[in-house]
Structures are given as C-alpha cells and as structure tokens.
Design a protein that fits this description.
6 helices; mainly alpha; flat; 175 residues
C-alpha cells in the first residue's frame, strides 16, 4: 500500500499537469492535435512509470546514495550471457517505438527522421542518467540507450508506413 501511494502521488501530479496546463493549450489547436498530443502525453507518462517512478517522493533522497555511472560497454550482458538480456533488449525497443511513431505527428510540420531520432536519443539519455540519481537501486546502461534509439527508428519506419492512414484519420478529426 505504501509503495502504491508513492506512484499515486506522481500520477496525480501528471493528471493535474495535463488538466491545468496541457489540455487547455492543446484544446485550442483542434481535435486532431489534442488527440495526438494526449496520446504522446499518456505514452510518456507510462515511460516515466516504467523507468523513473516514483519521482516526487524520491527527490529528497537523491543525494543519500552513491551515483552509479553508466555502463559504457555495449551489450555486455549479451556478450557474457548474463541475465535476461533478450527480454531487456526487446522491451527497450518496444518502449521507444511509440515515440518514433508519435513524435513526428506532434510537430507541425511533421519532422524528419534525424530530428525524431535525435529527440529519442535525448529522452533516452535523460532517463538513463536520471535512473541512478533518483533511485540507488537502478543503473544505466549504454545498451539501453542503443536499443531505445533502435526502437525510435522502428517507430519512425512504422510512422512512414502508416502515414496515409494516420493522415486520413487526422483529416477526419479536423472536420
């Protein structure tokens, strides 16, 4: 129960932020942008849940543990056969694929491959650097960064493949 409350505080903060800041801003831009931006917001909230939460209750304690620097040996778990590396790689790719798909649609006009992947890199790097700061039990790994970027690439390829369908849906929402 105590652990659930820690997460609940973060989710309440995210809901309030959405309701009082983003929803008002996005609502004026039309139903299509409201939908895409809301989907991106919900997606990023889940990314925070799986990678950094609980955040708010952890802030007073970020200096109470040593910072573990990022493992800079790519795919060390694969090389050494340690842990469930295949599952971790797949989850990291899957986690960032929606970003590669949704990010170009949140930009007006839609951005290209480089900007999408660079944004994916920045978000992934931020998460990897913040994980050991927020929680002493978490670590960061260059493999996660690489596989997250691959996930963003996969998402962008899917965005390109489904652009005719998504464009058609968004045009219908504008009416």
């Amino acid at each position: 129960m105590k652990y659930t409350i820690k997460y609940l505080i973060d989710f309440i903060a995210l809901v309030l932020l959405y309701a009082f800041v983003f929803f008002k801003k996005w609502k004026t831009k039309g139903k299509d942008l409201l939908l895409i931006n809301t989907l991106m917001y919900v997606y990023l909230s889940f990314v925070l849940y799986f990678t950094l939460m609980p955040i708010i209750v952890s802030l007073p304690f970020i200096l109470n543990h040593p910072y573990k620097f990022m493992n800079m040996v790519p795919f060390i778990d694969v090389i050494t056969g340690r842990g469930d590396f295949i599952r971790q790689i797949l989850l990291n790719v899957i986690m960032m694929a929606p970003f590669g798909f949704l990010f170009p649609m949140t930009q007006n006009p839609a951005v290209g491959f480089r900007k999408t992947i660079f944004s994916c890199f920045l978000i992934s790097l931020s998460i990897e650097l913040l994980q050991p700061l927020i929680s002493g039990s978490r670590s960061s790994d260059i493999t996660d960064l690489i596989t997250n970027i691959i996930g963003g690439m996969v998402g962008y390829v899917l965005y390109i493949a489904f652009r005719p369908i998504t464009s058609w849906i968004l045009v219908r929402l504008r009416k």
